[in-house]
Amino acid sequence: MEIAVISGKGGTGKSSISAAFASEHDKIVLADCDVDAANLYIIFEPEITEKSSFIGAQKAEIDYSKCTNCGTCIDYCRFDAIKFDNGKVVINEIFCDGCKLCSRICPENAISMIDNAENLLLSGNFRHGKMVYGRLAPGEENSGRLVNLVRDKAKKIAEQNNIETIIIDGPPGIGCPVISTITGVDHVVVVTEPSLSGMHDLKRTLELTNSFNLKTWVIINKFDLNSEFSDKIVEYCNHEGIDVLAKLPYDKQIVDAMVNCKSITEYLPDAEIVKIIKIALNKIINF
Amino acid sequence: MEGKILTDKSLKIAIASGKGGTGKTLISTSMFYAIQEKYENSVLLDCDAEEPNSLLFFDASLKESLKVVQKVPVIDTDKCVYCGKCHDYCEYNAIFIIPPSRIIKVIEELCHGCGACSVACEYDAIIEKDTEVGRVNLFVTDNGMNLVEARMKSGVMSPVPVIKAAHKSTSDKDIVIMDSPPGTSCPFIQTVVEADYVILVTEPTPFGLSDLKQSVNTLKTMHKQYGVVINRAGLGDTKVYDYLKSENIELLAEIPFDKEIAILYSTGKIVAAHDDNLKALFMKIFESIYNSYGNSGNQR
């Protein structure tokens, strides 16, 4: 069973909740799919047993010994990545999308595609089972692909080790890495917070999970910071037929747990918030 | 407008952070609020096209909504000979083909609109249609504040085309304050590439520090100027301060953790409009950046 924890808005407490979920069982696969900003390794300090790298998108490069500055490539490039600069054709690497069209149409064969930065896929053991995470090279584009690799690896490890539950910590937003994170999972948990921004982003996120027909649950984190908005969120979810899985109180101890490299479950096993999280996870698993 | 000064320099500042929820929007809305009274021809540009929410903080009316489109191929199966060349040219696996069964399909969600398939096709079987990927919405408030948001359509993979279009729509402005998407991948890059200066917002926690390092590494490869604001100072630990010191990165300001600020913000209030100290702080940060990094010889 794959359970993905996401949130449209960043900083709602997604990773802390994923970490707490992962600490509830001693046989779990934890997949950190927030490949832009993977963080759970900080808490769980996994012992890495396998590391592989893969090349992301390619970038176009001009061989100036062949280039005649004819500008044909400029006309074909749809990403505004090629321009004349002081009479010379120049590629802007940041805008290059790696579509390869310029290299295909260049009459002088002066453009080739070169490999861009290396992304990493890491996996190993941690104190509650197995962990997989990705590390996107700075500025890299292919985050959806890396998310897919992390998920595939997590599924393979789960199968090999006879582990039933995979907890996925997802990225913020609603774009390609999020779509890759939730496609085909069994449950999506959306973590939100009671604010105007939180509510706006929650609606956009639920629109996405709805369009993918996924079993979706909502957790309102720090619900007591603004009970008026919490009530509005509950009302909205009821109206949309989405289950509010839990309401978690604001607890400064969550930050203290993080600073101590522990999940809240490990740091304060008897805390009220831990009990609520436990009930929430069981509700999903027994659904 | 009376009381405002005509800027002799232009400046684009991006407010960014690797980690989400560190206070980017709080700072960008407040900084813009603080400076727009004084600086003419300024705009707040929300580049977080996946989850744009700067506009929630202003009472503004929509002035113009620009549709952002991308080209996607349409295959004319009467002309198609199922040679597969378009599939070979497509770097995004957006064309699915089984020649023996005469099946060919465009997977629009994967298409980046590069046009390679049209070039590939020798049988004139591919035409392109426009598909909407989002909007650039231009707003103005009663007292003349300019606000622009990039808003990606739900279900679309990449916000990049919408962010690019949003940048173009503000090219006539002298001062642009940009609210950046989180992370360090393409949406972030497309936002900060236009910036003269980047303010990285972080919080003093292990997660905040880890993501800050990632952002700094990315900005270094882009040769960008940047400084750091620590939000929720007083929470967590002090490792982020050690990092800034060891990397010689400028600490622009610290904003203490304050429940009052959190409550103001959660109800959609611009914090600087209710807190004079913070308003003055944001003005000061802006002006020191403006003086050092503004582009003089303003051609706009």
Please describe the topology of this protein.
The complex is a heterodimer of chains A (287) and B (300).
Chain A: E1 2-7, H1 14-23, E2 28-32, H2 40-44, E3 47-55, E4 58-62, H3 72-76, E5 82-85, E6 88-91, H4 101-105, E7 111-115, E8 118-126, E9 129-135, H5 143-160, E10 166-172, H6 176-182, E11 187-192, H7 196-211, E12 216-220, H8 227-240, E13 243-247, H9 253-259, H10 264-267, H11 272-285
Parallel strand pairs in A: 1-10, 1-11, 2-9, 2-10, 11-12, 12-13
Antiparallel strand pairs in A: 3-8, 4-7, 5-6, 8-9
Helix pairs in contact in A: 5-6
Chain B: E1 11-16, H1 24-36, E2 42-46, E3 60-75, H2 85-89, E4 95-98, E5 103-106, H3 116-120, E6 126-141, E7 146-152, H4 160-169, E8 175-179, H5 186-192, E9 197-202, H6 206-221, E10 226-233, H7 239-247, E11 251-256, H8 259-266, H9 276-293
Parallel strand pairs in B: 1-8, 1-9, 2-7, 2-8, 9-10, 10-11
Antiparallel strand pairs in B: 3-6, 4-5, 6-7
Helix pairs in contact in B: 1-9, 4-5
Task: Give an overview of the whole structure.
The complex is a heterodimer of chains A (287) and B (300). Chain A is 37% helix and 27% strand. With 287 residues, chain A is of the alpha/beta class. Chain A folds into 2 domains: 2-55 and 120-285, P-loop containing nucleotide triphosphate hydrolases (Rossmann fold, 3-Layer(aba) Sandwich); 58-115, Alpha-Beta Plaits (2-Layer Sandwich), CATH 3.30.70. In chain A, a hairpin with a 2-residue loop joins strand 5 (82-85) and strand 6 (88-91). The longest helix of chain A is centred in the middle third of the chain and has 18 residues, at 143-160. The N and C termini of chain A lie close together (11 Å). The mean pLDDT of chain A is 94. Chain B has 2 domains: 11-58 and 145-293, P-loop containing nucleotide triphosphate hydrolases (Rossmann fold); 70-131, Alpha-Beta Plaits (2-Layer Sandwich), CATH 3.30.70. Chain B contains 9 helices and 11 strands. Chain B has helices at residues 24-36, 85-89, 116-120, 160-169, 186-192, 206-221, 239-247, 259-266, 276-293; strands at 11-16, 42-46, 60-75, 95-98, 103-106, 126-141, 146-152, 175-179, 197-202, 226-233, 251-256. In chain B, the strands form 2 sheets. In chain B, strands 3-6-7-2-8-1-9-10-11 form a 9-stranded mixed sheet, sandwiched between helices. Chain B has a two-stranded antiparallel ribbon with strand order 4-5. In chain B, helix 6 links the parallel strand 9 and strand 10 (226-233). The model of chain B has no long low-confidence stretch (mean pLDDT 93). At the A-B interface, helix 4, helix 6, helix 7 and helix 9 of A face helix 5, helix 6 and helix 8 of B.
